[in-house]
């Protein structure tokens, strides 16, 4: 596996641990629908939270969350709709982004952006 894939997996594991410590129940990781993938689907307070995890080794070019483009949002929303239908979920849905970036001491730091975008942002 390439280094960036290893780093992405580490970041997703870190994000999942972070969410569980915050009281989120992880429902699914790496949910796939067609060509789309949702990194983490969680539940908290009777709300379904769709989480995109973005990790970067540096913020020189852009912050991790800035890599979530309109095209990526469309893909996530499509996969989320499929998940909700497939598992007959009628809960409110929220879309979050978790950014993972090393600090100056090379410790990985999480930035959890709640309600980062809405489904209508995909249009």
Automatic annotation (TrEMBL):
Keyword set includes ATP-binding: no
Swiss-Prot/TrEMBL keywords: Endonuclease, Hydrolase, Nuclease
UniProt cross-references to InterPro entries, sorted A to Z: Restrct_endonuc-II-like (IPR011335), tRNA_endonuc-like_dom_sf (IPR011856), UPF0102_YraN-like (IPR003509)
CDD domains: PoNe_Nuclease
Keyword Nuclease: yes
Pfam families: UPF0102
GO molecular function, one term: endonuclease activity
Similarity comment: Belongs to the UPF0102 family.
Protein name from the UniProt record: UPF0102 protein CQ022_13615
